[in-house]
């Protein structure tokens, strides 16, 4: 596609041959003739691309630079485009290899992770002491919390005097109990038979 006549600027879209799964890679190159072309290299850039990663784009730019330098003094656009076409075909072939490599890499990483999990962390004196210090600190914190809770519970517990002061019914509760029982409280006298042996003053 011609973009302008002065200076001559145009784009060429280059597509690779279809790969194993009918995949293709594509790039659109923009060329601008400089005043002394072909005795000086044309200006070139990649204006769009499909299915190429950053490394591929960098490689194509380097390839264009190298081919342009090698072909100074000759009409070179066809040569540059042909070189890019070959490069794209190589990239399509590499996609399969790349995918296989990525798959293998992921499998290796998963295997390493599994080994690490199974193997655990080797115990050294240093990491044992670190663990023990943390463990002791956690235990101490638990004990402190428990003591604090017990202390709080103790504060909320009322003494006998406080209970009597709060509820005056407790003053007569024993009398009520005896009345309800009909004053028939049974005493087990056998418990008091050997009072002499107790040496009470």
From TrEMBL:
Keyword presence, Acetylation: yes
Region (Disordered): 99-118
Positions of the RWD domain: 1-91
Basic and acidic residues: bias regions: 99-117
Keywords on record: Acetylation, Phosphoprotein
Matches recorded under SUPFAM superfamilies: UBC-like (SSF54495)
Entry-linked Pfam families: DFRP_C, RWD
GO cellular component: cytoplasm
Domain of life: Eukaryota
Job description of the protein: Protects DRG2 from proteolytic degradation.
Family indicated by similarity: Belongs to the RWDD1/GIR2 family.
Name of protein: RWD domain-containing protein 1
Naturally occurring in which organism (per UniProt): Buceros rhinoceros silvestris
Lineage: Eukaryota, Metazoa, Chordata, Craniata, Vertebrata
């Amino acid at each position: 596609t011609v973009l302008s006549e002065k200076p001559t600027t145009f784009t060429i879209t280059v597509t690779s041959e279809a790969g194993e799964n009918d995949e293709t890679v594509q790039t659109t190159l923009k060329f601008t003739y400089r005043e002394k072309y072909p005795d000086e290299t044309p200006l070139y850039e990649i204006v769009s691309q499909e299915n190429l990663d950053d490394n591929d784009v960098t490689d194509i730019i380097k390839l264009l630079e190298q081919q342009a330098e090698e072909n100074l003094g000759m009409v070179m656009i066809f040569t540059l485009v042909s070189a890019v076409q070959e490069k794209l075909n190589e990239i399509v072939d590499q996609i399969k290899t790349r995918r296989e490599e990525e798959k293998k890499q992921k499998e290796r990483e998963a295997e390493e992770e599994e080994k690490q999990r199974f193997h655990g962390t080797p115990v050294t004196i240093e990491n044992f002491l670190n663990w023990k210090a943390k463990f002791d600190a956690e235990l101490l914190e638990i004990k402190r919390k428990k003591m604090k809770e017990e202390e709080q519970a103790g504060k909320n517990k009322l003494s006998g005097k406080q209970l009597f002061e709060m509820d005056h019914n407790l003053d007569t509760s024993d009398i009520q109990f005896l009345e309800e029982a009909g004053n028939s409280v049974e005493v087990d006298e056998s418990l008091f038979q050997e009072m002499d042996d107790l040496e009470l003053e």
